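Study this protein:
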Amino acid sequence: MAERIVLYGATGYTGRLTATELVARGHTPVLAGRNTFAVRQLADELGGLPTATADAADPDSVRALVGRGDVLLSTVGPFHRFGAPAVEAAIAAGANYLDSTGEQAFIRRVFEDWDPSARAAGVTLLTAFGFDYVPGNLAAALALEQAGPDATSVIVGYFTRGRAGPLGRFAGSAPPVSRGTITSAAQAMLEPGFSWKGGELRTETVGHDLLRHRLADGRTRTSVSVSSTEHLSLPRVYPRLREVRVGLGAAGVATPAVWALGRVGQEVLRIPGIRSRVRDLVIARLPGSGGGPSEEHNATSGCLVTAHAYAPDGTELSRVVLTGPSVYGFTAKILAWGAEQLACGVAKDVGAVGPVEAFGLDELERGCASVGLHRAD
């Protein structure tokens, strides 16, 4: 394989996990980051990988990372601060691109601002290709296929499972998260979100809705609405969709309280001047990347994703439940798989695309199953 996989942001928490997965899959990725010493140290730990130094503050250094046909995998967060140079570098070089973001403003920018130039360059952009938001795209597509042409809406829920518990046993509180995730979540509260309602994309604050998801055993779980690639990609695959709703329920039983606090916070942010002050005084000082959950936590936790497809009258037509490894474990594994697929040239479309558009439903399901995400019996 002549094309290279370049991992930019290799020394961050998600970057390290992804580098390890790429090596485990038999690849020799180029590790890149702004700290030359840290990058080389990680490269040595993983068997002597090639390295490069690049800093988002110096876009030329990021552009120098890739050439035509390469794959640029970015884990440099928060993406609202550091993400743009990597996307622009990939498009300029004719390299395919994927990233680990979950930030709604950046996701929308990839789909709306960079899609035309990526299509013109003949490259594929896969943003939010981790736990945010590959499993929900897969679950929703499976549910819609199962439901058939009468389905016009789909509701997706993302949850965590605690400490190797059985199916349906959820952590009662929020799981450990990386510093980058904390920063991204805080940023999400300050930026406009979006949803797909009434057959169109609408601007809507993150956390606008408290969603309910009924499981097979009759129990109901709740989630807080988020903006994701499902809203942007699924209506292109399934034009009959009038509504796509996606929620995150990682706070477990505390999710309704988190939603209520979020709604209060959004009202406070409406006060003139408050939003800018919070952004200047808090967000700008939060850490970018850093530590995250321990190896033990990742080994003993898991994820669960649900999708329910509905008819126009609200009748549930199908339900799909997927279970898999830990949030960060899945993200690293699916990023490595996605980079491998792009390097092999199997993407079905160019421009900004979602997971189903990129690989097709059957191949995406096989890929997710290969990294531990399966349908629950």
Remarks:
- Confidence is low (pLDDT under 50) at residues 163-174.
- The longest helix spans residues 104-121.
- The CA atoms of residues 22 and 232 lie 28 Å apart.
- The radius of gyration is 20 Å.
